[in-house]
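Standup notes
- DV: blocked on the single-chain target, sequence here:
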Amino acid sequence: MNLAKLTLNELQQGWHATPQGLACNYCQAAWPSETSLDQLQNHLDIVHGGNQSQLLHLKSRYNTLTVKQQDLLTAFATGIKDQALAEQLQVAPATVRHQKFTFREKAKQAKFYLAVYETVFNTSTDAPVTNEATTAVDTQNQAQLLTEDETAKILKTYFDFDQDPVRLKRLPQKHAALMTVLTRIVAEVPENIPLSVTAINAYLKPIYFDYHTIRRELIKYQFIQPAMTSNQYFHPAKINNL
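- DV (later): unblocked, structure below
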């Protein structure tokens, strides 16, 4: 598969348009333009085991997923509960949630990078995928640019992921590290549900002894925002985070 010649939509669907009709992304199969979606999907499922599996295990320099990450994403795709997956892997449920958090952050980083790339080079979201790498940026767009390795190093330095929920060892002083830490902590707070200060404290207290400071920092940097109801706040991740 030549990723540079396929659009994001074509990658997600597993087939692409050609001057002659339609073609499979993974083999030489071709169909007339009027071919039904069911026929295309049947081909992907029967011949290639589904488009999702092909993308996850694609032999490409663009696919930077490790074997462990591929296996985890395959498991997540089944809809398995965190507790059940943790038992299978013999790890703490917090470790599974952290892996989900890591994948979400990577997706946000890629989305941000594409937005910047397309703005700079005047391309559209349906343009062929030609970027060579993704650049990481903190969720609130206020810290220095961080690579994925730098983000992972910060998380490993400041958190104990063997605990459930995760435990913060200490609060970082540097802004970029603080943003990364707060991004991880707020992942433990339900999204878009109005919560009282007491309710928020209940989520933060097991994570860090000085949970009052954590709450103030989350509010200060707008990870948690005031709700319409007085004296309540919410984590608006699905509303205004990338």
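- Follow-up: Confidence is low (pLDDT under 50) at residues 127-144, 238-242.
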